[in-house]
Design goal:
The complex is a heterodimer of chains A (44) and B (402). Chain A has one helix and two strands; from the N terminus they run βαβ. With 44 residues, chain A is α+β, with helices and mostly antiparallel strands. Chain B is an alpha+beta fold and 402 residues long. The N and C termini of chain B lie far apart (51 Å).
């Protein structure tokens, strides 16, 4: 992705959160938006 | 959280972690995706454009079409709402608890509640298959787990099925089994797997497999600029190459990071899953990876296996705890297929990661006979009792005898 491009992530548990964090680390100039339906999320 | 070990505010990925990294977080549900205009629309009616989209909708508990599933006191455990409801129910006197399914979530929660509930709590686990943790363990490894938990006053009924959840005035009163047996209950805990959340993906016509969204090794879906990962996508077994659900947190995290690497230009492909997982029940820890011997045979492998008892420390060191390892090999090409560990100490259970690495490395019985582990009297068994090496030696003898 190029600087200024937009990444949208739907979901923020096992895959979504790590994806967003890694994307920001590797591509700090892109614009990332995460949609999380849940206020909190647990696995058990 | 159900057992009071974490608070309601506990969360795996807090918003602050994301916002501190300059990532925008919206607590909204995405209701539609328009791949043509490359926009998502939320349930609040707002639209957001994207250049790349990553789908990670996860999964939801599978609730079978069983009579009585809607009664008050029938619960699943997936999110905070479930956990809060269970805690409230237990606080209000739910003391006869039936778990349907002996998977790892059931077993962990049952063990925690048995520990906290005291003599007034009666816990029964009903499992359709003939053993506890049937996806992780073979019968010869599961029997010790079941015996240990039975000593902790957890009742087990295996090889039977819940036909109906019985209620009165809208509240659960018990379960009726296929064998005709009835068990009283004021809380019934359903834990028989999850199903991927696929509505959004289906709405835009993404190609599907039997277990979820189809993706390639780079997490790319059938639609341009849309990637996906985690519980909502179909995985492939590293060992058999066949499609599988693989709905565990480990592969979800790795697939998420892998998708980010792909977008950053890296050429790294997901190797497939081993379904490696762990389960802690009181002071017993179970870990497993790859195929059980039961599953391997179902997949058509001719197997050879070995079980070895070992020690968490050298025999003369105080605090030594026993642990047991099982390795399963393909009898024809001698490759490692799977491993199982049952341990009375946490540390040895992590040796399962070495087993996973050996499977990914396609190691054979002979190669494992020369494995040397990092040994120290206080942190491991004696080198002569290293169970991976011994299991391989036993398997070598069995495989070459016949």
């Amino acid at each position: 992705m190029q600087a200024g491009e937009k990444l949208v992530v739907v979901g923020c548990s096992g895959a979504g959160g790590p994806m967003a964090m890694m994307a920001k680390k590797l591509m700090p100039e892109i614009d990332i938006t995460v949609f999380r339906k849940e206020e909190h999320f647990i696995v058990r | 959280m159900v057992a009071g070990l974490a608070t309601e505010q506990s969360i795996v990925i807090p918003d602050k972690m994301l916002s501190d990294a300059a990532i925008a977080v919206h607590h909204q549900e995405v209701s539609t995706i328009d791949p043509e205009s490359k926009q998502v629309k939320t349930s609040a009616g707002q639209s957001y454009s994207y250049d790349k989209l990553f789908l990670a909708m996860g999964s939801s508990p599978f609730i079978p079409p069983i009579e009585g599933r809607d009664l008050e006191g029938v619960v699943t455990l997936r999110d905070l709402v479930d956990a809060t409801a269970i805690k409230k129910r237990l606080a209000s006197g739910g003391k006869q608890i039936v778990f349907i399914g002996a998977g790892f979530i059931s077993m962990e929660i049952a063990a925690l509640l048995a520990e906290q509930g005291g003599d007034a709590t009666r816990i029964t686990v009903v499992e359709l298959m003939d053993r506890v943790l049937p996806l992780m363990l073979d019968g010869d490894m599961a029997e010790g787990v079941q015996r240990y938990l039975a000593d902790e006053k957890i009742n087990f009924i295996t090889g039977d099925k819940v036909e109906k959840i019985i209620g009165q005035n809208g509240k659960v009163k018990g379960v009726l089994l296929a064998s005709g047996r009835k068990i009283e209950a004021d809380l019934v805990f359903l834990n028989i797997g999850v199903r991927p959340n696929l509505e959004l993906a289906r709405d835009i016509g993404l190609e599907m497999g039997d277990y979820g969204i189809k993706v390639n090794g780079y997490q790319e879906t059938s639609a341009p600029d849309i990637l996906a990962g985690g519980d909502c996508v179909q995985k492939y077994s590293f060992i058999t190459g066949k499609p599988t659900a693989g709905q565990l947190r480990g592969p979800a995290v790795v697939q998420g990071r892998l998708a980010a690497k792909r977008l950053a230009g890296f050429d790294i492909s997901f190797p497939g899953v081993l379904d490696a997982g762990g389960c802690k029940m009181l002071d017993m820890t179970v870990t497993a990876t790859g195929l059980t011997e039961t599953r391997a045979r179902e997949e058509g492998f001719e197997t050879v296996s070995a079980i070895v008892d070992s020690r968490s420390k050298h025999g003369m060191i105080a605090g030594m705890a026993p642990w047991r390892l099982k390795l399963v090999f393909d009898k024809n090409n001698h490759r490692l297929l799977g491993g199982q560990i049952v341990s009375r100490d946490i540390a040895p259970a992590r040796e399962i990661d070495a087993v996973s690495a050996f499977i990914f490395g396609k190691k054979t019985i002979a190669e494992l006979t020369t494995f040397t582990s990092a040994c120290n009297p206080d942190i491991s068994s004696e080198p002569s009792a290293e169970p991976i090496t011994i299991a391989a030696e036993q398997a070598l003898q069995k495989a070459t005898k016949s």
